[in-house]
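Handover notes (outgoing to incoming on-call)

Open items:
1. Fimbrial protein: sequence verified, structure written out, both below. Nothing else pending on this one.
2. Nothing else urgent.
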Amino acid sequence: MSKVVMKINYYNLLSLFFTVMPLCSSAATSSATKLIPITATFVAPPCNVSFSDGSNTQEVNLGDITLGEKIHAPFSLKIECKYSRGSSINAGVVTGSLSVDDKRLIQMQDEMTGNVTPVYLSLKDSQSSAIEFNTISGADTGKPFCPGDSTRTCIITPVTTVRSGAGIVAGTKLTAAIIFTINNP
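Fimbrial protein structure tokens:
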């Protein structure tokens, strides 16, 4: 059995070093690279709308409605924003019919039949300006109201109008439903 002995002297070691080194350095510089795009969309924290009691829904009982114009007890909307950017509210008609002549008036419905009545409902903001309604379908857009930059409370006053000779039967139960939507920029 023969033995193979390799003698490495100083010159062989240098030669081996210079042969292996370029291989190592080229391995280090020739790595594959991959580009991974990362995208994101900033979404501002939304403002929330609730009623004064903190609920998301509220039924407002207007009581008895008589001929002429009647101002009813106000209710409030609370707008809570987690940032300081402008926001406002829109009011949309869900039940009732937006007046063809005036987007500030809703014709209330007979609760039993669902028919529109000659009783009109309007809402006034804290500056006593009539709120312009929009339709849920988006065909008619109302003007936003209660603008602000932070958390606030908006006082809303319902007003009903029944013209004399309107032909509304006494005891008719009336209904209208309005949705309030926050506009965040």
